[in-house]
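User: quick one, fold this
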Amino acid sequence: MLKANWIILAIILFSVTTFAQSSKQILEAEKLLSDLGYWILKIDGVADASTKHAIVAFQKAERRKRTGVLNTAELKALRLAKYPTPQFTGEAHIEVDITRQVLFLVNENGRITHILPISSGSEEKYQQDGKWQIAHTPRGEFKIERQIHGTRKAPLGNLYNPSYFYKGVAIHGSNSIPVSPASHGCVRIPRFADKLFIDMVWVGMKVYVYD
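Assistant:
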C-alpha cells in the first residue's frame, strides 16, 4: 500500500513538473513569436488560439514542417530566427505570400507588425450556380475596395469581417485555416484576429499578393 502511494505521488510530481516546463516553454515561445511580429494576443504561458496559429505561421514563414507543435527543435529555431522583412516598402500595406501561406501587415515605416497564417485558393474546381469555377486567389497589386463589419452569409459559407480587394475575393476570418491552400479564392485568416484586423486596415489600402 505504501509503495502504491509513492507511485501515485511520483506520477503527480512528474505531471506537475512537466506542466511547469511546458508552461515555461510556451511563455518563452510566445515572447519570441511576439518579438518577431507574429500575432500573439497575450504573453502568459497559456497556448490559446493566437499561440497555436502563431506557431504555424512561424513554421510557414521559415519554410519548416507545418506541424503546429511546439517542441525543442521549434523553440531552438525561434531563438535563432531573424525578424522577417517585407517584399514591398512605402506606405502601409498588406502582403499575402501564397507560397508560404502567410499574411504580413506592414506599417508606413516598412516594418512588419503582424503576421498571420492564411489559407488561399486551392486551385481545384468547384461548382457554384450551376457553373464550374477554379478556386484561385488572384496575384498582383490591389487595394481594399470595401469592408463588411460582422458576418456576411455567402453561398459558399460565412465570411467574418471581410475586406474585399478583388471583386468577390476578400481577406476574411474563417473557422478553418489548414496548413495548405483550401479556400475558394479568398484569403482566410484565423477567427481570433478578424475583428481586430478589419479595424487595422482600411478601404484604399494596398494589398500585394504574390508567390
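User: anything notable?
Assistant: Residues 2-20 have pLDDT under 50 and may be disordered.
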